[in-house]
Amino acid sequence: MKSDERRTRIREVRRRLAQEGPPWTRDRKADFETVTVPERDCDQLRDLLISEGVQTVVEVGLAYASSALAIGEALVTVQRPSPRHIIIDPFQERDWSNAGWDLLRSAGLDSIASLIPAPSSIALPQLLTEGLVADAAFVDGSHRFHEVFVDLYFLRKIIRPGGLIVMDDAGAPSVLTAVRYYEQNLGWTVIPGAFPGSTPTTVAANVQAESATRCKAMRLPDPPFEPPFEEFHAF
Ligand SMILES: C[S@@+](CC[C@H](N)C(=O)[O-])C[C@H]1O[C@@H](n2cnc3c(N)ncnc32)[C@H](O)[C@@H]1O
Predict the structure, then answer these.
(1) What are the pLDDT digits (tens) for 178-213?
(2) For residue 56, how far is its CA from the centre of ligand 1 (angstroms)?
(3) Predicted TM-score (pTM) of this structure
(4) 109 alpha carbon to ligand 1 midpoint, in Å?
(5) How far is the CA of 21 from the centre of ligand 1 (A)?
(6) Would you state the pLDDT for residue 7?
(7) Residue 208 domain-assigned?
(8) What is the domain extent for residue 137?
(9) How many domains are there within the chain?
(10) Are 45 and 194 in contact (CB under 8 A)?
(11) Closest ligand 1 atom to 168 CA
(12) Would you say the CB of residue 93 lies under 6 angstroms from ligand 1?
């Protein structure tokens, strides 16, 4: 299938998902709307990844695959020789009845995507040990402070120097606090304007408005560095 045909197929699956929701959801009120990344943020994530020319992307948290489909669209659009989308989610089958993976398959993206059914704190060090180097990551997993912190610890070693890490729910106190360590101590810089008018996160209603945008993109330093422990900045 040609690249523009593949893109058309992905866009059709994305459009139907955004308009009609997934074929299956958990039995909770407005579950899809509450859980999934909104279409506009997904479009902005896709455009950012296209502008970076990504070949390998790591994603934490699949659920209903709105963000995964957008990442897949970016990888197909960029047309690098060996696109790879590595998705980590221990609960896709148990909690989500494979809804997200089935959507990726219906979009034809299972040819470039792989799903690791393990917690990110286990999968990421394994990927690092295998020598994975990725251009970007999208993190929308457990949202617990300690798990986000550990995800970022390993992603920092997996993402190439100058690569991107994009957070969902960046205004949630647990996520905000974990990210702040890396910004204040390890030279990560926010990419301004990557998510203009980003939808306020649903899990940060108690956070100040200016920090409550949903998605946040950060660039890793190039060259990378390890600061001396004496230069620790409380975060
Ligand atoms: C908010 S949802 C992701 C939504 C998804 N980005 C979308 O657009 O539909 C969070 C996901 O993280 C997964 N998750 C929870 N704990 C995790 C962990 N320790 N490692 C990886 N994924 C985890 C959940 O199973 C769930 O699928």
Answers:
(1) 999 999 999 999 999 999 987 766 655 444 444 567
(2) 19
(3) 0.96
(4) 19
(5) 17
(6) 97
(7) no
(8) 3-166
(9) 1
(10) no
(11) 6
(12) no
